[in-house]
């Protein structure tokens, strides 16, 4: 992971559903620009749009965002900013995908069919309504460290499992039965764009989603007025953020990529870089030997005040996308939410 001369790195999570017929031609110029500016992270390009999370020195990052907005199709591209004490990504990637967030349902049109946006300062009123079914569209491991009070957890392990959950819960006795009024939220908004479009395609007509996602809510709604409990998982090395987008208290298991609380790290099953309470019985002795050697290299690099690029591992609960980040749910911030996004 690149070092920075600045004490604070700017992180931008962004996405937009828009027809990009030439998305393949956009890849190399965008990668070249980001690398020239010292930007790291992941951007996903597909015919349906762009998604990702990138980080860098503030002036360099804003120059990349300005460049993106020179494309008339991206002129109104929105992004969410947060700070990190060091680069949260190891390198820059621009990937070509079939979908910028993978649901696996053809002909969904988020650009024109997404549900009704609700601004963060109006969200409390909607979710406080007892007739509203509030649904957390994120994956189970994300919901596990924080969510809105009273929200339904679909217990999905990937975004592509969401349509099946909707079908199951739309029947008699399900939480979505009889044309429920539904309010959805996710990390940065991208999964809600697609999930609300999917619900509308299934005949739901009262479908709402939180504009800017959890990140915008935590950034703008005072903690005293908040309906949020816990931390928000993010798809980068910060692992989680709280109100005001302050860095959270969670760490990441390098063996399975699950977020770890302080209590998890006290477990007899926790060995830094090797195992945690979530995965201690899921890896073979050979895998654990490899993890131990990788951790040894990380510690040696730390002693040299260098960064060990191999510290980052692919995530088993993102067998894929993430991307993220997170392209299903990436590890970007592009709440690919990738561990790129956030969205």
TrEMBL record:
InterPro entries: Rhodanese-like_dom, Rhodanese-like_dom_sf, TrhO, TRHO_N. Its EC number is 1.14.-.-. GO terms for molecular function: oxidoreductase activity, acting on paired donors, with incorporation or reduction of molecular oxygen; transferase activity. It comes from the Bacteria. Keywords: Oxidoreductase, Transferase, tRNA processing. It holds the Pfam family UPF0176_N. Residues 324-343 have a biased composition (Polar residues). PROSITE patterns: RHODANESE_3. CDD domains: RHOD_YceA (cd01518). It catalyses: uridine(34) in tRNA + AH2 + O2 = 5-hydroxyuridine(34) in tRNA + A + H2O. One of its GO terms (biological process) is tRNA modification. Residues 128-226 form the Rhodanese domain. Residues 301-343 are annotated as: Disordered. It is an enzyme of class 1 (oxidoreductase). Catalyzes oxygen-dependent 5-hydroxyuridine (ho5U) modification at position 34 in tRNAs. Belongs to the TrhO family. This is tRNA uridine(34) hydroxylase. It comes from Allopusillimonas soli.
